[in-house]
Design brief:
Layout lengths: L3 H16 L8 E3 L11 E8 L16 E9 L2 E3 L5 E3 L6 E4 L3 H4 L18 H16 L11 E7 L37 E12 L2 E11 L15 E8 L6 E8 L7 E8 L25 E12 L4 E11 L15 E8 L19 E3 L5 E3 L11 E5 L22 E7 L3 H4 L16 E5 L1 H7 L17 E8 L7 E14 L6
Parallel strand pairs: 2-7, 15-19
Antiparallel strand pairs: 1-22, 2-3, 3-6, 4-5, 7-12, 8-9, 9-10, 10-11, 11-22, 12-21, 13-20, 13-22, 14-15, 14-21, 16-17, 18-19
């Protein structure tokens, strides 16, 4: 039975969503299982990847790099002298764990406690199955529309071109022949991390109780974190409640090192079924309904404490999906599927690579707010400073030249990338208008018209094909510290996260 506190929070969330309306009267519904992060119970998973979004090889003693912390807070009711129900004393609250330590330690080849899940010996296949298994333990059945968890994603940017671990634009190739430069300290540089877990527990103060917990660790397999971070790589994600807003606050920290100069850490709102952005298999997440351009907004509070240095591509919003070059939805065929990403980088040190003298880093055209196409060679009109870079999918047959092909190895299929910067063009949709907006010392609660902005971006399609439906399966916030020359630290918090769909289907 749900506690009265849970019911109250659910009612508050519903009221907030029902009141969120535009001047035209559009009503909005939340697409996620935990609107605004208001639930008193925690649902969070952890996943780690090598360069091409696979596992490759598990870290010693860590099991498959898929974990979860899914816990319910129970506070018994007591009655006062008049018989009114009151919440019990804070020290009477308890936590009920949905996931056991043994579940998180499952490694390739281990049998799952539930025989419906297959004990693959291949580490890549086992990780997929383990995510589905953990999802079944964490699942919340909400009006027959189940959801599982928020997802913390950690990725290692090292790539050993002497291995055959990563495909090239979705095709298995060996040996890899490329003139692109990737960081790698030698054999084993694509390893998975050591991951430690502070299980969610009850934290009580001022006669109120909530849950706190964390995941943390390092890619340095010989590190002893009990002696401090030192010169090692490091990551941590912790969660606690903001007592004033009742939102979860996810606190992130990411530290690069000489051996691991390219690391990524995101908080992801992923689809509860089907593909997630960047993957080619069934996943789990928190988005019960998939947002489609242009009819959705995202709300969140972002507070950046440390930026991660000049190469930190901090994404206020990174949206990901997948469709083929002919506009058809992806079906798992990695040779014809294409991952599509759009990312707003708010680090003010990030410059525009798209320039009149470097059209190769610009999309073929920009779409104005009125819908007009402005081509990249129209130097007096094209907003070059609104773009960091554009790169096309490696399997696109009719790409307009000049064009730079996106890195063909860092996803399991070809990818297309549109990276944008703070600019007046995007500010009309609630995004930063200028460099420095929302950066260190400028914590903000954002309402981003992600649907409207994403409908304006150029994405490649084969000529004469029906335009793809831009349905987004992953909405992410976090940073990619790109090949730092020295050890860098990024630190930030995310809270109040929600994805709002127009109930009428009209543009929001």
């Amino acid at each position: 039975m749900a506690s009265p506190f849970t019911s109250t929070l659910t009612l508050v969330s519903v009221l907030v969503i029902s009141l969120f309306a535009s001047s035209s009267g559009n009503q909005f519904i939340s697409a996620i299982g935990d609107p605004g992060m208001k639930s008193q119970n925690i649902r969070v998973s952890f996943e780690a990847w090598n360069f091409c979004n696979e596992v490759g090889k598990e870290a010693p003693g860590m099991g498959s790099p898929r974990m979860a912390d899914c816990a319910d807070l129970y506070c018994p009711l007591i009655a006062d002298s008049l018989g009114n129900h009151l919440h019990g004393h804070t020290n009477e609250c308890e936590v009920h764990q949905k996931v056991a330590k043994s579940d998180n330690l499952l490694a390739a080849g281990d049998k799952f406690p539930d025989s419906h899940f297959k004990p693959y010996t291949d580490p890549d296949l086992f990780a997929v199955e383990k995510e589905l298994y953990l999802g079944s333990l964490c699942e919340v059945d909400s009006s027959n529309d189940p959801w599982q968890f928020w997802t913390v994603m950690l990725k290692n940017g090292n790539f050993d071109t002497k291995t055959s671990l990563c495909p090239e634009n979705g095709k298995k190739v060996s040996p890899i022949v490329t003139d692109r430069k990737f960081p790698c300290f030698g054999e084993g540089c694509m390893n998975q991390p050591l991951v430690y877990h502070n299980w969610s527990k009850v934290f009580s103060s001022d006669q109120s109780s909530s849950l706190v917990g964390s995941f943390y660790g390092t890619y340095d397999l010989d590190a002893d974190l009990s002696k401090g971070i030192g010169s090692n790589s490091y990551f941590s994600v912790s969660w606690n409640k903001n007592k004033k807003t009742c939102s979860w606050v996810f606190s992130h920290k990411l530290v690069t090192s000489a051996k691991y100069p390219w690391l990524m850490l995101y908080l992801r709102s992923d689809a509860t079924k089907g593909f997630n952005g960047g993957y080619h298999y069934e996943g789990r997440g928190i988005m019960k309904k998939l947002p489609e351009s242009p009819n959705f907004k995202v709300q969140l509070t972002l507070d950046i404490k440390e930026g991660g240095g000049p190469n930190s591509q901090f994404y206020l919003m990174d949206i990901g999906s997948c469709w083929k070059n002919n506009g058809e939805p992806c079906d798992g065929d990695a040779e014809t599927d294409v991952t599509r990403y759009s990312e707003m980088i708010i680090n003010p040190e990030t410059t525009s690579w798209c320039r009149p003298n470097n059209l190769v880093s610009c999309p073929p055209y920009h779409i104005s707010l009125s819908g007009e196409k402005i081509y990249r060679n129209e130097t007096s009109r094209f907003p070059y400073s609104a773009y960091h870079l554009y790169c096309g999918p490696g399997n696109g047959a009719y790409l307009e030249k000049p064009v730079d092909i996106c890195d063909p190895y860092s996803n399991p299929q070809a990818q297309e990338l549109v990276q944008i910067l703070p600019h007046a063009e995007w500010a009309v949709h609630g995004y930063p208008a200028k460099k420095g907006d929302g950066w260190i010392g400028d914590s903000r609660t954002w309402t981003l018209d992600v649907g409207a902005l994403s409908s304006r971006l150029f994405f490649y399609q084969d000529p004469g094909t029906q335009p793809a439906k831009r349905v987004w399966t992953s909405l992410n916030v976090g940073t990619e510290i790109y090949v730092s020359q020295t050890g860098q630290t990024a630190e930030w918090t995310v809270s109040d996260f929600d994805v709002l769909l127009s109930e009428t289907g009209d543009s929001v």
